Amino acid sequence: MHSLKAIIFDLDDTLLDTSGLLVPHAIHESCSELIHRGLKIKLNQCIEEKRDFAKSNSRINFFEYLVEKYADESLDPQTKKQLIRLGKDKFYNRKIKEPLNMVDGAKDFLSYAIQKNLKLFLVTEGAFATQKEKVEQLNIGSFFEEIFYANPENGENKESLFKKILNLYNLSGSEVLCVGNRVDNEISAGNHMQMITCLINTGEYNGLIPKSASEIPTYTFKEFKDLKEWFLR
Ligand SMILES: [Mg+2]
Q: Where are the domains of the chain?
């Protein structure tokens, strides 16, 4: 690890306990709205569906699944699309009212990495205002050299932002450790950039099975404590 110069972190379910703290509230609000618009499912059943869906190894968006399964069959595709958009909007683009906490050991690891003179970056995807609010509430901004908010509407994703970081900071992939919780997102993107990838296997999607070699992380740890121990070895 002597050549390591930087670490890129994911936010949701990597540094922040999103599944535990925010997902139940966001599901409640988004599903209530969809039920109000005619989705044929009860609210408690929606919450169970979300839990099962996260374990189902599916790669489609939850709201696409939910609307396809529970919307009135007579609805035209355009109306179904609107319902999906509404569900996503209520879920991702929400005002955070809950107090936020980091996952165990995350803040300690950030401090440790700074002491090791590593450059830290945060790359997160989602609604900009919501993601920014999470960072501010957690008060972690000062740990990072730079924070990147991926905006899919501008064609940005984790991979394009990883590429940007390598270029801007004159780093090669092998000098960067990419830490995240999704094999189908930042782990895959990091592997494509020849980074060292580390899956912190937490959150609701912790059972997601890699579907190709490019989704297999270099290392898998249950928690930050284990990642730190690996650094200390
Ligand atoms: Mg995540």
A: 6-18+100-232, 23-92
